[in-house]
User: Fold these one by one.
Assistant:
Number 1:
Amino acid sequence: MSESRYGEQPLARILREQRWTFTLMADELGVSRRQVGNAAKGWSRPIPALREQLPIILGVPLEELFTPSALEPFAAQPEHRRKRVNA
């Protein structure tokens, strides 16, 4: 299997240590299991619900749940070139 985009996140270890499954956490947050799993495994950046609620539920600062690359703002990504249309 190929390496995930952002690498496994500290969140994955913390969830294991606190005995949370992706499914239980997803139910607690009202999101899909896939959203929690993908963020923890580093396949995608955490969605707002994860960034806002995980630190509260787990009692761990956001910066300790995810690596800096996973928390970089979307604006930091290269923009897709758009074709300008003159009015």
Note: The radius of gyration is 15 Å.
Number 2:
Amino acid sequence: MSWVQQTPSSERSASNPFSKSLPTEFDGHLIRRVFDEATKTWWFSVIDVVQVLAQQPDSQTARKYWNKPKERLSK
């Protein structure tokens, strides 16, 4: 698993609860995620997860794959 350098805590905004961003690697693909300090919860990018699970070649295809069902649910 590879990690990217995170923003030093002195540069993080106190008003942004999602200031701890640590992308992670899953099955050879980068998954964006952020940590909510207040609730001690990790939040993952749905687009990145869909891209890996649906074996999509790029994020645009994964975005379209996700947006269509999302659009149908909002009707």
Note: The mean pLDDT is 76.
